[in-house]
Task: structure prediction
Amino acid sequence: MSIADIRQTYQKFELLESTAAADPYTQFDQWFQQALHSEVHEPTAMTLATADCSGRPSARIVLLKGFDTQGFVFYTNYQSRKGQELNTNPHASLLFFWPELERQIRIEGTVSQVAAAESDAYYASRPLGSRIGAWASPQSQPITHEALAQRANDLAQELGDQPPRPPHWGGYRIQANHIEFWQGRPSRLHDRLVYDLDDTQHWQLTRLAP
Result:
């Protein structure tokens, strides 16, 4: 079979304006809860796309660690490539793909760092190895495996069982202004419902052609 012959028929669900929530955060929560209870592998995994000041894009998988009407939160090293790009261009997009449900969600918006207390609380909840790793890894910089392991070992001994949060590590919140819900449908006639935030800060719902 050639690559061009690989395809999937989508027919599990439909997405209609008559049943969609009035706002995208409620709609996201409904789909997210279904993903959690439908054996979706890594339901919190999302592609984060950023761009540098010249518009050159980059993308990677990060994990969703919280969401509410204020936005979607993830944590990372502020000095990483993504952190540097968000510092100079605070706009990003997220993509969730849940093949088990034949769904994807695209989110676009502006990005800001979460409050220090919020980052502190999440950092304290992480396993100790992950907390040490946040100190040990000069994320996105060249390093050997041996050097990274040595840094982690040295810092584990230096910092003990209660390391403070590194000042270069914390959370970002993407405050959405555009959220698209995509439901796979037969014959590639997919459902695409988009919520856009208008000038009065109200959400407008539109159907897009697949």
